[in-house]
């Protein structure tokens, strides 16, 4: 008897749906008829709240006292605090029906050791214990059943799944069908067994990021294996050093909910109705057990987007929730905007009809291989994974996304939430995957279909420039189509003014500070949003899509006056918990919510350089790629022949987002490109020092990023890409009127062409021998201005 250290207390009618942690503690702790001998012995260490045969909470038993109320003779009041995390994570929602079976007594004494054993058996299940790989086989079978075609990731060649059974998959390819038709094969298909796939899965798990060379025991079918595994919601595709890899997605435990949805929403009610500051939860709630619950609930509000990373209220999302006619449906949409919660939902769509225990076991195991602790040092332990996964499943059930058996509901199924929606590639349909080259080709053809002609190299350049950094300047004479280039570029990727992903902001000459762009506090003390702030908020609420802002005729006003705050905050971007965050752009005091720059917002400015506009400072030029649009080919009409209407491709933000913020990010991936770029820049910098125009670390880093993305997509040669970088990041900073600028330009010409500059009437550039011909032509242009006018600049036309 002395080993029975835990009390199970049925709270029955005392339990109400949506009870706060305080109410649940009170209902469990007050006035129970318990043997005083048992309590006083000191053997009892825990007591549990049980409702509908499930453990709802576990408390450490710290003390007790008799209830002195006349009607409660023989009853005791228990005092405790919420039990430690390992025990809670294992026992919450545990079904204890068999323990109370045949007993009408609401009090039951048990061993904690027995409860933990029951919990372990319930979660793992006999079938999963006997065969630890059985869970992955269930998913493989579901993919085979639901997919008729798997395309290889590198060559986009089809593998047709013509049949599947308990043993494996029948796969046909173009080659196998051709050999069968020519009598070289007896059957048009090959059989890939699930045992073979499970062996490949073990090889993948051993390395976590795998190329075809990592599948040693299963080589020969590595292309199919990688494409098949990429169908899993928790497997990504990446390209590094021109090598294709698949890799496990990675998360941290603070991206998985700790509190129930009821507890989370109760804190939201406290915040809105009692005006509680979510940042001050630790100070407001003094009792440790309540404080821990509230902190877990606060983390849940952050996952749903009601709070930002600094636990400040996201007013726009809170307003949407308050205004929503169907709040449950609104919450379900918020849930599916969170990457890990969406991942669980996607995986459940592959597990329909499988036992609940198997679903929980499988999802817990997946969590253990892709989720690390909040410090990112160790993978999640089983008990933590079980607890967090159970929370997620209950969130999905309570918002109507799944039923009681955790099956995804047919009427809730949405193609974009099921099977695979891996972000690195774009999908036109369920079978075809596009590479970066194909995306650029699509943009190029889309723009041409609108009746505009731009060389494909300029489309590549704009794509790489935006991917390198989300701020680009397009310069050139009026009428060359700079504005249209940006509009069609954005529209080709699914971003339009109609859906809010594209915003055109005409710049006015009288802008002298950021208020016209960002907003201002009026005489009543209310904040009036500027057009850029509205775009920022919209982008922030849909972080999985790219948003474009076009500042038209950007230099009609002095850019440094109205855009300096944005430039400074843009440079503050940093990695936090695997996400890109920035410093504050607008403070909470002014706007009632903190505004930062979202990583999915891309700002493009168009500029004309004439007597009505202002020049740029080095502060601006250092922070942007400046692309010239001066080429005019009036006689080129061939692109107008046989124009076909082309539909946009809706791509995710991850396709355009930069993977590199600091040089060390790239150094881990490709040291060769950094060394090669640095070597060239050192040569150029020696000449630039002549007029103190040498570049710094920021320019070096961004040129390296540009070159790395070019290499990854195999878009241009190194020299062609570096030529663009010189033209966009170095030459725009040069201007002057004395002999030093003349000497500098001549030295640069020599570096770019390996020949000395001569004052020929026609261009002296030998296209075959010049290493950087575009930059050399610009240098010639600048030298001729200097000779003719006594002053030169990149910008004078």
**Helix content percent band:** 40-55%
Low-confidence sequence ranges: 125-132, 411-433
The main sheet comes to: 6 strands, mixed
Write down the overall geometry: globular
- Mean pLDDT across all residues, rounded? 84
Q: For this entry, what is the oligomeric state of its chains?
A: single chain
With helices defined by DSSP (H or I, 4 residues minimum), what is the helix count?
33
Structural class: alpha+beta
Strand order of the biggest β-sheet: 2-5-4-3-1-6
Measured between the Cα atoms of the first and last residue, the distance is: 95 Å
The number of E-state strands comes to 30
Which terms would index this structure?
six-stranded mixed beta sheet, alpha+beta, five-stranded parallel beta sheet, 797 residues
SSE diagram, text form:
Elements: E1 6-10, H1 21-29, E2 32-33, H2 36-41, E3 46-51, E4 54-66, E5 75-82, H3 85-91, H4 97-100, E6 107-110, H5 112-124, H6 126-130, H7 134-146, E7 149-151, E8 158-164, E9 168-173, H8 174-181, E10 190-193, H9 194-207, E11 209-210, H10 222-230, E12 235-240, E13 243-248, E14 251-252, H11 261-273, H12 281-284, H13 288-303, H14 315-323, H15 327-335, H16 339-348, H17 356-370, E15 371-372, H18 382-398, E16 426-427, E17 433-434, H19 436-449, H20 456-468, E18 471-475, H21 482-492, E19 502-506, H22 515-518, E20 519-521, E21 527-529, H23 531-541, E22 547-552, H24 559-570, E23 574-576, E24 579-581, E25 584-586, H25 588-591, E26 595-596, E27 601-607, H26 618-622, E28 625-628, H27 653-656, H28 663-667, H29 671-688, H30 697-713, H31 718-730, E29 735-736, H32 739-753, H33 773-789, E30 792-793
Parallel strand pairs: 1-3, 14-15, 18-27, 18-28, 19-22, 22-27
Antiparallel strand pairs: 1-6, 2-5, 3-4, 4-5, 7-8, 8-9, 9-10, 11-13, 12-13, 16-17, 20-21, 23-24, 25-26, 29-30
């Amino acid at each position: 008897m002395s080993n029975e250290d835990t009390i199970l207390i049925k709270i029955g009618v005392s339990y109400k749906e949506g009870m706060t942690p305080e109410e649940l503690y009170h209902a469990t702790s007050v006035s129970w008829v318990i043997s005083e001998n048992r309590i006083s012995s000191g053997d009892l260490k825990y007591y549990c709240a049980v409702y509908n045969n499930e453990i709802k909470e576990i408390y450490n038993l710290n003390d007790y006292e008799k209830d002195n109320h006349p009607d409660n003779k023989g009853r005791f009041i228990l005092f405790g605090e919420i039990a430690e995390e390992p025990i809670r994570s294992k026992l919450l929602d545990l079904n204890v029906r068999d323990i109370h079976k045949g007993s009408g007594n609401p009090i039951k004494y048990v061993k904690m050791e027995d409860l933990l054993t029951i919990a372990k058996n319930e979660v793992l299940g006999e079938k999963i214990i006997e065969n630890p790989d059985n869970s992955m086989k269930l998913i493989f079978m579901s993919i085979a059943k639901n997919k008729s075609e798997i395309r290889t990731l590198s060559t986009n060649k089809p593998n047709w799944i013509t049949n599947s059974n308990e043993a494996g998959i029948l796969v046909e390819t173009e080659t196998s069908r051709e050999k069968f038709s020519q009598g070289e094969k007896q059957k048009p298909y090959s059989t890939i067994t699930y045992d073979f796939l499970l062996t490949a899965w073990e090889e993948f798990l051993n390395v976590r990021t795998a190329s075809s060379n990592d599948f040693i025991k299963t080589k020969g079918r590595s292309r199919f294996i990688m494409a098949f595994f990429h169908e899993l919601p928790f497997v990504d595709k990446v390209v590094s050093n021109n090598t294709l890899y698949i890799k496990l997605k990675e998360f941290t435990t603070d991206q998985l909910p700790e509190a129930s949805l009821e507890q989370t929403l109760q804190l939201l009610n406290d915040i809105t109705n009692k005006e509680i500051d979510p940042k001050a939860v630790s100070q407001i709630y003094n009792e440790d057990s309540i404080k821990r619950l509230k902190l877990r609930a606060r983390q849940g509000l952050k996952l749903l987007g009601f709070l930002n990373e600094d636990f400040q209220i996201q007013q726009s999302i809170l307003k949407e929730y308050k205004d929503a006619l169907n709040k449950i449906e609104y919450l379900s949409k918020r849930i599916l905007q969170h990457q890990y919660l969406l991942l669980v939902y996607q995986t459940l769509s592959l597990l329909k009809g499988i036992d609940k225990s198997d679903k929980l076991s499988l999802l817990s195991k997946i969590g253990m291989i892709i989720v690390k602790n909040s410090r990112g040092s160790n993978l999640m332990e089983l008990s933590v994974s079980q607890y967090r996964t159970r929370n997620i499943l209950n969130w999905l059930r309570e918002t109507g996304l799944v039923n009681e058996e955790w099956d995804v509901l047919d009427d809730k199924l949405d193609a974009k939430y099921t099977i695979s929606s891996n972000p690195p590639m774009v999908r036109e349909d369920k079978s075809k995957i596009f590479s970066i080259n194909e995306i650029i080709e699509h943009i190029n053809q889309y723009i041409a279909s609108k009746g505009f002609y731009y060389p494909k190299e300029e489309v590549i350049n704009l794509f790489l420039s935006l991917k390198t950094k989300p701020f680009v300047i397009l310069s050139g004479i009026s009428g060359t189509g700079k504005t249209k280039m940006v509009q069609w570029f954005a529209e080709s990727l699914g971003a339009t003014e109609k859906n809010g992903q594209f915003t055109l902001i005409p710049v006015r000459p009288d802008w002298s500070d950021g208020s016209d762009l960002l907003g201002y506090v009026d005489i009543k003390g209310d904040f009036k949003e500027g057009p850029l702030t509205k775009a920022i908020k919209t982008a922030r609420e849909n972080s999985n899509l790219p948003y474009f802002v076009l500042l038209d005729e950007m230099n009609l006003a002095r850019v440094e006056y109205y855009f300096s705050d944005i430039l400074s905050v843009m440079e503050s971007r940093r990695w936090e918990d695997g996400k890109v965050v920035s410093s504050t752009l607008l403070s909470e005091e002014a706007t009632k919510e903190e505004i930062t720059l979202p990583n999915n917002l891309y700002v493009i400015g168009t500029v004309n350089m004439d007597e009505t506009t202002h020049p740029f400072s080095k502060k601006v030029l250092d922070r942007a790629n400046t692309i010239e649009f001066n080429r005019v080919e009036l006689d080129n009409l061939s692109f107008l022949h046989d124009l076909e209407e082309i539909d946009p491709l809706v791509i995710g933000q991850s396709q355009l987002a930069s993977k590199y913020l600091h040089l060390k990010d790239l150094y881990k991936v490709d040291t060769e490109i950094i060394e090669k770029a640095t070597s060239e820049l050192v040569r150029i910098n020696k000449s630039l020092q002549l007029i103190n125009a040498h570049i710094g670390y920021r320019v070096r880093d961004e040129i390296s990023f540009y070159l790395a993305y070019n290499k990854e997509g195999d878009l241009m040669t190194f020299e062609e890409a570096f030529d663009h970088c010189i033209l966009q990041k170095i030459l725009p900073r040069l201007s002057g009127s004395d002999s030093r600028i003349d000497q500098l330009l001549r030295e640069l010409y020599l570096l770019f062409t390996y020949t000395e500059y001569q004052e020929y009437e026609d261009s002296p550039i030998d296209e075959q021998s010049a290493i950087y011909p575009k930059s050399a032509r610009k240098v010639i242009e600048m030298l001729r201005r200097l000779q003719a006018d006594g002053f030169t600049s990149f910008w004078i036309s």
